[in-house]
Amino acid sequence: MKIGVISNAAYAVPLLQLCANNRIQASVFADACSDKDSTSALRHFCQVMSVPLYEWEPAMLYTWIKELNPDIVFILGYSHLIDIQQLPSLLLDAVYNIHFGPLPTYRGPNPVFWQIRNNASTLGVTIHRINEKFDDGPVVWAKDILRGYHINYGTAHTILAHVALEGVAHILQHHAQQKKLSPLPQSTVASRYYRRPALNDVLINWAEMELGEILNIILACNPWNKGGLTLYQGSEVKIIDAEVSKDKSVNSASFIPGTIANHNKCLQVVCKGNKLLNINMLALDGAFIPARHAEKYGFLKGRQLGN
């Protein structure tokens, strides 16, 4: 059996490791025009494991498929729509997209961000056949897992990449045994498309947002945006890690939301409803700053975040 993997993402590595462990021949196609940093982990794995990796322009994808002549193709972490008219007819029912979100409720290019941002209680993985639209083909396998509230954007991708292996194994077994899968068409009633995150989606509004929403922004932005965005004296600051404060000694009612209530040992910021947020790690001008050192960078009690 020959497997084609179309991906530019590090989270394709568990799938390739599964193929290697089961002595399944795999080959990878990556978009040469994409961010080289995003492909580095994939490139290193392929080099170490002697997995063929073709970093070509997207238009060359169909040449790669023709030359490889794979039995199955899996797509994950690839931003271009596949033109099914250019696929071999025998391959049309054997090309599967691995989508890190439940479908059709979380269609779009960044479902993990939105699941965390929306405070979803679960995270989903869906594997579906492709058609002429993004995230629209019939579903062959899906699974939801409980979302631990310590899980950020990066760790969610790592976890879901391993959860998806169950679905991949299910598909490989059916193909090996020449059994038919039973794909289900997606509902048109519950479908929703989420665009890529914009500035307002990652920006913390101290006056309007509840503490829980602020925490979800921080988790949803780590590591790709280096944390949730706020301002401090006109400069951008990213909050990388934070938690609910259990400190009862601070009179938060005397401060407006966004005010630094304490800068000793940690950075405590007042949120809506007189709740306190403990900030543990910041990013300022690209440098990571433990909050215990924040006062040395001018983050002082009584000063305001968000301006």
CATH C-level class of the largest domain is Alpha Beta
Number of helices: 7
The main sheet orders its strands as: 3-2-1-4-5-6-7
Return the structural class: alpha/beta
Write down the Rg. Answer: 22 Å
Tell me which CATH architecture of the largest domain applies here.
3-Layer(aba) Sandwich
Number of strands: 13
Q: Overall mean pLDDT score? A: 95
Q: How many domains?
A: 2
Low-confidence stretches: none
Write the layout of secondary structure elements.
Elements (H helix, E strand, L loop, with lengths): L1 E5 L6 H9 L3 E7 L4 H14 L3 E4 L4 H8 L3 E4 L19 E5 L11 H7 L4 E8 L9 E8 L6 H24 L22 H4 L8 H10 L7 E5 L2 E10 L15 E3 L4 E5 L3 E10 L2 E4 L17
Parallel strand pairs: 1-2, 1-4, 2-3, 4-5
Antiparallel strand pairs: 5-6, 6-7, 8-9, 9-12, 10-11, 11-12, 12-13
Describe the model.
With 307 residues, the protein is of the alpha/beta class. It has 2 domains: 175 residues, 3-Layer(aba) Sandwich (Rossmann fold); 99 residues, Methionyl-tRNA Fmet Formyltransferase, Chain A, domain 2 (Roll), CATH 3.10.25. The chain contains 7 helices and 13 strands. A 7-stranded mixed sheet has the order 3-2-1-4-5-6-7, sandwiched between helices. The protein is elongated, with a radius of gyration of 22 Å. It starts with a strand and ends in a 17-residue tail after the last strand. The mean pLDDT is 95.
Relevant terms:
six-stranded antiparallel beta sheet, alpha/beta, 7 helices, seven-stranded mixed beta sheet, about 25% strand, Rossmann fold, elongated, Methionyl-tRNA Fmet Formyltransferase, Chain A, domain 2, about 300 residues
